[in-house]
UniProtKB/TrEMBL annotation, chains A, B:
Source taxonomy: Bacteria, Pseudomonadati, Pseudomonadota, Alphaproteobacteria, Rhodobacterales
Name of this chain's protein: Ribonuclease J
Keyword match Hydrolase: yes
Organism field: Paracoccus siganidrum
Keywords: Exonuclease, Hydrolase, Metal-binding, Nuclease, RNA-binding, Zinc
Domain of life: Bacteria
Length: 558, 558
């Protein structure tokens, strides 16, 4: 059969997070493969209580591991590289990334005890990486972290441009500007662009995006206007923003103190790799605590309300010897990611209780997005003139809107969510397969499947409480008097004021007394009967049916 | 001691939700009291899993029940009357409300089996209710539900205006307009306004609010432009919006079908009480299913992503014989309340998967807020010229901003969060007490305290999982071989691939074998030791410490 070019997202398509995109070229079922990005997404109490990190289930890729050539990482955000430390071993192939990104990937690998030398540091275009049927170039694009790259993936079936995350920023403060002439040249080479796999995050934002550089003046003016201690929070990886904030501090006679491990790490990797130059000297929390309040700016982690980050700690009181007070000022130089409104609100209110004046970026003065807005995406379509547009990095509604926009412009376009394999060889993309895709949860130190039922049981316990029943059956299949009931996460008293556990025990005792030998002799039947009674009694007495675990102990004759 | 005028919020101050405000007049500690509003707030998985309704803990009011004269309900929103059915019995005093609101209060009471005749239907000013030292008038204000009222509370210490929820809307479509001349008169009577207790919800919104009436044209144009089935969702209680939507449907040749119990109930109470007139005839879901798609508009509940409401049901597939399809249109004529972004997003994406075009109100065309914005609040301050402003109906940051605004205008103002008692007798408000305040959770059919630990245990099980250990000790204080371990919400396998429960059992068996008689003979010690080992072993094997429940069964000699 003829060779074909395939695209298969395993993460990031139908969601914003845990990016992982597979491209393949070869005979059907025998394509040689590359993986672009290997990121995480973050758990939440709603859908995944107790889970910090969520990553793509790579089962399909593991089954086809012998066909996988390499992993390419576009940039250093967690949703693009955060799973490398946890999943690299399952794939075992070389990783390619630019210098700053590569340094972050190496840290991830080292943390998990893997060899850092599997990372190959790759320069930007015109440097090329040849692997299997693919020739790959990293093309600098602007984004909210330095050294972001789009990938040019040349294959015998034509040229793919995989944008990664990008915006059209000619003055990004730190990192590479978006260069339309460079992209014009790329589009003009050879047969042009066959496929554009394109960031869809901001497809619903109607106005053109704004440059990182527009923030310098508003931020400086804001800092100048503050009379006491100034605190600013933003995404740790937004090194350009850190620089803008720090320079505003220096210009207004303040020293800068960085709080939060992620922030210090990003700045140090930035300096080590040469991406970041001229970052002002920083001072320690001790030094900051010793200076007059109007001579200090803290730049801190936790813009999304993370419970253990510096912002949250400061909002709760003393942290590393520093304490916020009436008249201090706190700037969220960040956007609240949907879903984080409540934790961010909690911090803002806690700061308000301390008398701290809180400023956010809602009016656009103190934050710009790192993603291309709708007109910017259109401009990229126009610049690259691809035959086919495949929207990625978006929830279903973003992908759908992006497809509609591309089609309205006369381009071929198709929605492919995680697990959908597209054949891109012909004029129009064609769905050719649905493969198993899913999510893995990092639970403590163990990777579990999202569908394993473990987290489902936790959610059920959280919603319904948990009743435990212990029953002892003696050597002659007699149930010892009184089942023992313990409740966890359930009201202790019934509506009528009785002790709920004792009440359930009474009902169970009555049942067990009259239970027939067939039921008592059969673990499954006994378990089922006890569970049913417990749930019924609870429903009557407190109006809810708890999860029930029954432990049946059978005494053995010596 | 001289008599004094006090204000004591028990809900709604320091949060948006579960409003409950106490006013009192009399000798300190002997004030006669009234309660304004008795609302609920809604639980979430984050902070209160398994809890649907949260309401104020009225312990203080119950202790002082003999001093309570009456309850006044300002309007029919759940956060102002939702707790009446659950808590009225603890107070046992008459309830006063206007007709539409009163009808809703009666339904709440009847649902819980309480006498509906405790509700006294009260006309608007100039009708007065005298109770104890208070003379109370309901003054119509505009809001997002009909018959909203501010209260004028006249006391020997002066006049209080309690705004309830309000906006400055001269053309609210349904219900009373805001009448500045009326308020001018009220401010000019007698000694003027001593205290303004004022809605703070939109204090951070810088532009003047917009009238409900501005939506009619955009909504009509939107409906006219749609080619297939049209669905619109909004808050069920926003009867003006329902009318605007329904009239747009009729004007564009569509029949209207209402889906969702709350929506049908609101419309029928609106019609019965005469608040709503000229609402178009509606059709049943069956009839709707039988008509061509371009002749129907569904108006449905679930604008906040509620899992069981009509919007969610429709997004998941067939509902009451109706099924959305490619080319249908779905309008969120509503704002997403902070914290609901994820569930609303889930519905939007599910609709996108069905091929439905989703429209939201982000550009302001299809929704207006029901609350006064910052300039509107300023205008009310100006109109009423109160001596003292007490901000309410807001999180701490809203209250603080409102106080700052009032002070900047030369007014006395003070933040009082739930439980803070203010003395309003003098020129400036004075904090005179902090009373116990808190939250009650409706868990199934039982009211539990938020601090009882029940929900805390559920959250812990959700985050950490739950390990159950059953141990049997015989008549001679020997532990029977093998503790039995059951896991709920925990990985079945250790990092090394072993069965986790069996592994913990092994470690426990080893401990129990060597345990001394003092430990085995003492339930508390044995429990503690088993719990500790279980947590340690789990930490080593899966990197997390579960909640542990130990059941020790001691066999008795016959």
């Amino acid at each position: 059969m003829a060779e074909r070019l395939i695209y298969l997202p395993l993460g990031g398509a139908g969601e914003i997070g845990m990016n992982a995109y597979v491209y393949g070229y070869g005979a059907p079922g025998k394509e040689r493969l590359i993986l672009v990005d290997l990121g995480v997404t973050f758990g939440d109490m709603d859908g995944s209580p107790g889970i910090d990190l969520i990553m793509p289930d790579l089962a399909w890729l593991q089954q086809n591991r012998d066909r996988l050539e390499a992993i390419f990482i576009t940039h250093g955000h967690e949703d693009h590289l955060g799973a490398v430390g946890h999943l690299w071993q399952r794939l075992g192939v070389p990783i390619y990334a630019r210098q700053f990104t590569g340094a972050l990937v190496r840290l991830k690998l080292e943390e998990m005890g893997h060899p850092a030398n599997v990372v190959n540091i790759t320069g930007p275009r015109p440097e090329v990486t040849r692997t299997g049927p693919f020739t790959v170039q990293f093309v600098p694009v602007s984004h909210s972290i330095p050294e972001s790259a789009a990938l040019i993936i040349d294959t015998p079936a034509g040229r793919i441009v995989h944008t990664g995350d990008f915006k059209l920023d000619g003055t990004p403060v730190v990192g590479d500007p978006f260069d339309p002439i460079l992209w014009h040249d790329i589009a003009g080479e050879g047969r042009g662009i066959k496929v554009l796999a394109c960031d869809s995050t901001n497809i619903f934002t109607p106005h053109p995006g704004r440059s990182e550089a527009v923030l310098a003046n508003p931020i400086l003016e804001w800092v100048m206007a503050q009379k006491n201690l100034v605190v600013a929070t933003t995404f740790a990886s937004n090194i350009a923003r850190l620089k803008t904030l720090a320079e505003a501090a220096i210009a207004s006679g303040r020293k800068v103190c960085l709080l939060g491990r992620a922030m210090r790490r990003m700045v140090s990797v930035g300096l080590e790799t040469g991406v970041l130059t001229d970052f002002p000297d920083t001072i320690s929390p001790d030094e900051a605590a010793g200076l007059p309040r109007n001579q200090v700016m803290l730049i801190v982690t936790g813009s999304q309300g993370e419970r253990r980050a510096a912002s949250a700690q400061l909002s709760r009181g003393r942290y590393l010897g520093l304490q916020l007070k009436e008249g201090d000022s706190f700037l969220f130089s960040s956007k609240t990611i949907p879903g984080n409104e409540r934790p961010v609100g909690r911090i803002m209110n806690a700061l308000s209780e301390l008398g701290v004046d809180v400023y956010d970026a809602d009016d656009g003065l103190y934050h710009v997005s790192g993603h291309a807005n709708r007109p910017d995406i259109e401009a990229l379509h126009e610049l690259l003139k691809p035959e086919i547009v495949i929207p990625m990095h978006g929830e279903h509604m973003h992908l759908r809107e992006h497809v509609q926009m591309a089609r309205a412009r006369g381009l071929q376009a198709e929605i492919a969510v995680n697990g959908t394999m597209l054949d891109l060889t012909g004029e129009a993309p064609k769905v050719v397969d649905q493969v198993e895709s899913g999510r893995l949860y990092l639970d403590g130190t163990v990777l579990i499947g999202a569908m394993d039922g473990i987290v489902r049981d936790r959610i059920r316990m959280a919603l319904n409480g948990h009743a435990l029943v212990s029953v002892i059956v003696d050597e002659e299949d007699n149930v010892l008097p009184d089942a023992w009931v313990e409740l966890m996460g359930l009201p202790g008293r019934t509506r009528g004021g009785d002790d709920l556990a004792r009440h359930v025990e009474g009902e169970l005792a009555e049942f067990l007394e009259g239970a027939d030998a067939r039921t008592v002799g059969d673990d499954r039947k006994l378990d089922e009967a006890i569970r049913k009674i417990t749930r019924q009694v609870a429903m009557e007495e407190i109006g809810k049916k708890p999860e029930v675990t029954v432990i049946i102990s059978r005494l053995m004759a010596d």
